Amino acid sequence: MRNRIMTILIIAILFLLIDIYVFQGVLSASKNWSLIWKGIFRYGFWAPSVICFSAMLWWALGDPYAHTASFRNWMITGIFTVYISKIFAVLVLFADDFQRGMRYFTSFFYKESSTSLPGEVMPRSEFLSKAALVAATVPFGALTYGIISGAHDYRIRRQTVYLPNLPKAFDGISIAQLSDIHSGSFFNKRAVVGGVEMLLKEKPDAVFFTGDLVNNQTSELKDYFDVFNKVKAPLGVFSVTGNHDYGDYHKWANAKAKAQNFLDLIQAHKELGFDLLQNEHRWLEVGSEKIAIIGNDNWGAGRFAKYGKLDEAYRGTEEAPVKLLLSHDPSHWDAQVRQHYKDIDIMFAGHTHGFQFGVEVGGFKWSPSQYIYKQWAGLYKEEEQYLYVNRGFGYLGYPGRVGIPPEITVITLKRS
To answer: How confident is residue 244, by pLDDT bands cut at 50, 70 and 90?
Structure first.
């Protein structure tokens, strides 16, 4: 409790300093406005700050964990959105103050009047109106739009993968992939229903779900069970677990409660009609021909959980003409799959969410995610092996997406 109060106090002081600094710019920007608009603008600047400070005070002295994770998430998102926007304004204002300071410092070394110094000083009010206010408004608007529109702006992404050993009976088979549902984060059930309906209209032959059904607790699925149990396909719906499905990021009363939560998750997959593969495989059969579907529990490089046992899941599929692997974390591909299982044709992954922020225009794509994951979104190929990284159906933390919309993948397999 004491540590929490001290941490929040430090953050509050930092935020207050940001407010005071930016407010000096607000004063300059509005100095020539009418009395009414000047008051609205200046008092309006402090209104979000007061709300944020009240929330932080409640968090420090109250019991935030007595409320839902969704409520806490929205509170943090609101504070983050307000102050990340103000930080952009700080950067612009600081650049202006820096050049003013440099000019002042340089004036001591010039005999001439400071007015004869190189460059032209733009009036502070003009600078603010054209730069600082815009700098603060743009990220605030983008993050807000990402919540209102981007969170559920589902896109169908289609890929065709050619495999030389694909049996004739499977030529043209379509597989829809969902990943990272994070049902505990949703706030618009109607929109989520629309996303599932988009998938069903594609009429895939099979559906793969590559993990993170919930954020932490299986109970999060309750309100959306009747949405995702509609996901069906003629050849089946196959699933694996992601790092969030084990409850590792939640403070449980005891180990038994955590273990029960995971058992409930396994049961939820069954009741949804998902064939959950826990370090095991299944055979996908069409006529007299078949290919292997391998399902690996979460295995992530670095600090992420390594529950996966690919050797167990793979065992018994050696003679399969085509092997399709479901494994949540794309880092698994380079770390194990390409090193030791070179006959696994395609690995289906998710996990990265494309960082829920980035730019994708034509063939160009950028996201902060690429600085953490070598493969973070889309189709990758090394030698004769493929990896597809789904950008995720849901969201985590920030309840929105900017430039990286939620994804439903449809992959068609063809004989090469």
So the answer is: very high
